[in-house]
Inverse folding.
């Protein structure tokens, strides 16, 4: 009896293990961090890449919410360079005080994972740049820091219905040790190597009754394939540069000013797009020719009269 | 302790297999049936100079003993032996002029202009005979090209920055029907040719009616590559029917709606070409059996109704973000949010 009870107990335990294992195998998409572990020391700046494994599914929208140990790590930047996300519906936001990072964006036409034969990395969503502050009041800081992808993150399938994909997440943990070695800065190295400006782009002027009360606005969008785009600035005519995004409601609704949009990447490289308003063509001033001819006629008449008058 | 005994291992494996079999349909929800997976025929290959193969290729000054006919003298030096930096060295496959002598005050190399290097992307596959193909680069229209009468197309992109790019393609068939936008992401390598081949655009699809009575015949038709096998899927319940496209790429199927219940249904199609290329699913079209089909406001995420889904529609969506706008609210949950954005990404034309 005792043996039977033990076997039953074992089967129950195995069933629980099975339950725990199988959902992980059949999830539709996995959001994960690379590296997921490592040893760093105060003063180091390191990069954590956020990636996606779609497990054969086609997805088109990602919303990511992450938390990090804000008492140990300082999130200094977020790089969109090399990201598969093209349109950012919510630009990356870092809240150091609450230790939260969030962003949302999409891929027009969807993303179905790596194509067979692709040797490069094509599943990067973004890079988070963390810095471990140096010594605090003369003492070396040690401990472990975590970066977690929160349950509020979402991945949507490319099915034309906006269906949410089943999602699994993996977190990362880093050890902070006092090695007393020279500090490393992975991000500075990437910034130093980036000398290429953002990709060329165009400014388009539109007017839609549905938005901005039917007023003129501009749209623009570009990417930077190295360190990623940092910000856009807009300039209308002689007005000052203003940090703005697309869509941008024009101040000059008369469309007489030259519009410039500057895209700046994380390394400070710039690309400027310009829109020169079309000056309406005026009809050829034929009246000037008539006036000149008439003037010439009058002069000729006066000279002629003067000449014959003398005689 | 029990985990190490033979019986326990058998119990463990059997349990896992049983659990997998019983519960996988739950975990593999209907979403996976609806999602369009990447066609298995799409592949990417990278070709370009391989330093160390002894052959001087585009982008290389030299490779091993192949110096391209150059000598120290031809490079402007007086004498000496020209060599080539080996593969793996910092200046691999470039000239090593350390063995060249500038002579007594003369010389001064630098007259050599290295061959041009090209970063190129080739995208090739099948669409529909003489279809107008539109190629998008990171969501923006880059170029258009016509497919040949056999539905083949090949587009070359030069002057491209190395890095991760999302390319999207959609096509318009001879009847003006548009395909779904098919996207793929590739990491373009500097000085290399990245070739993406095996693309087979999903068929175009059209319905003779969207409102019909039970038992009426519904004609489902469109275009694909000539003589391809077209699988038409109708939901729900799921019914799969097959037909073959003509030599001109036209396909059609007459569906008897008697087995379908009254209410909303959807249909879509995919194709397999005679060469073995597989497409993903086409657009999903809806039809209604019975009375009172619901009307659709701003269908297919074309929020300004200009026939395109692009940055302007995205601007309109952002304007209404978090609010209730019947046009931007594509899924009808009375809030413009992520599912609406996802629907826009699906119908994107650039």
């Amino acid at each position: 009896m005792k043996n039977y009870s033990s076997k039953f107990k074992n089967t129950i335990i195995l069933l629980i293990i099975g339950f725990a294992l199988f959902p992980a195998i059949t999830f539709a998409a996995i959001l994960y961090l690379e590296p997921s572990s490592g040893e760093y020391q105060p003063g180091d700046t390191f990069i954590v890449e956020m990636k996606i494994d779609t497990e054969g599914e086609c997805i088109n929208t990602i919303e990511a919410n992450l938390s990090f140990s804000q008492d140990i790590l300082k999130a200094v930047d977020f790089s969109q360079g090399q990201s598969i996300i093209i349109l950012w519906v919510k630009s990356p936001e870092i809240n150091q005080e609450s230790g939260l990072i969030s962003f949302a964006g999409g891929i027009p036409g969807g993303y179905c994972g790596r194509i067979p034969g692709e040797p490069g990395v094509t599943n990067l969503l973004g890079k988070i740049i963390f810095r471990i502050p140096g010594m605090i009041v003369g003492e070396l800081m040690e401990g472990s820091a975590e970066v977690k992808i929160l349950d509020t993150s979402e991945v949507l399938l490319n099915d034309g219905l906006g269906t949410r994909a089943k999602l699994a997440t993996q977190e990362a943990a880093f050890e902070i040790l006092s090695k007393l070695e020279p500090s490393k800065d992975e991000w500075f190295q990437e910034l130093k190597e980036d000398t290429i400006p953002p990709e060329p782009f165009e400014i388009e002027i539109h007017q839609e009754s549905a938005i901005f009360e039917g007023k003129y606005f501009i749209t623009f969008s570009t990417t930077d394939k190295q360190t990623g785009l940092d910000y856009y600035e807009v300039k209308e005519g002689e007005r000052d540069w203003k940090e703005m995004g697309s869509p941008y409601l024009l101040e000059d609704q008369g469309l007489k000013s030259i519009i410039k949009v500057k895209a700046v990447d994380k390394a400070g490289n710039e690309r400027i797009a310009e829109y020169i308003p079309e000056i309406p063509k005026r009809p050829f001033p034929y009246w000037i020719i008539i006036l000149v001819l008439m003037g010439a006629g009058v002069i000729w008449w006066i000279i002629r009269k003067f000449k014959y008058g003398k005689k | 302790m029990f985990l190490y005994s033979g019986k326990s291992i058998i119990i463990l494996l059997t349990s896992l297999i049983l659990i997998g079999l019983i519960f996988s349909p739950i975990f593999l929800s209907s979403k996976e049936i609806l999602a369009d997976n990447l066609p298995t025929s799409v592949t990417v290959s990278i070709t370009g100079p391989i330093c160390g193969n002894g052959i001087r290729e585009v982008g290389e000054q030299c490779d091993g003993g192949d110096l391209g006919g150059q000598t120290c003298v031809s490079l402007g030096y007086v004498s000496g032996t020209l060599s080539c930096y080996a593969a793996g060295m910092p200046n691999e496959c470039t000239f090593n002029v350390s063995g060249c002598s500038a002579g007594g005050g003369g010389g001064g190399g630098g007259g050599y202009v290295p061959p041009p290097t090209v970063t190129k992307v080739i995208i090739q596959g099948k669409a529909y005979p003489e279809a107008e193909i539109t190629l998008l680069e990171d969501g923006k229209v880059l170029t258009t090209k016509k497919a040949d009468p056999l539905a083949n197309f090949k587009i070359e992109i030069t002057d491209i920055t190395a890095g991760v790019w999302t390319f999207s393609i959609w096509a318009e068939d001879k009847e003006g029907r548009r395909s779904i936008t098919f996207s793929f992401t590739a990491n373009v390598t500097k000085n290399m040719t990245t070739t993406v081949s095996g693309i087979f655009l999903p068929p175009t699809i059209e319905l003779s009616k969207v409102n019909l009575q039970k038992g009426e015949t519904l004609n489902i038709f469109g275009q694909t590559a000539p003589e391809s096998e077209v699988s038409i899927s109708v939901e729900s319940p799921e019914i799969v029917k097959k037909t073959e496209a003509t030599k001109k790429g036209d396909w059609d199927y007459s569906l008897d709606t008697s087995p379908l219940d009254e209410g909303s249904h959807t249909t879509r199609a995919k194709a397999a070409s005679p060469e073995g290329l597989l497409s993903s699913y086409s657009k999903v079209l809806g039809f209604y059996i019975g009375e009172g089909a619901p009307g659709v406001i701003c269908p297919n995420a074309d929020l300004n109704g200009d026939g395109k889904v692009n940055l302007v529609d995205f601007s309109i969506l952002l304007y209404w973000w978090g609010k209730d706008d019947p046009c931007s609210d594509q899924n009808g949950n009375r809030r413009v949010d992520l599912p609406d954005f996802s629907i826009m990404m699906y119908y994107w034309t650039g």
In short: Chain B has a mean pLDDT of 83.
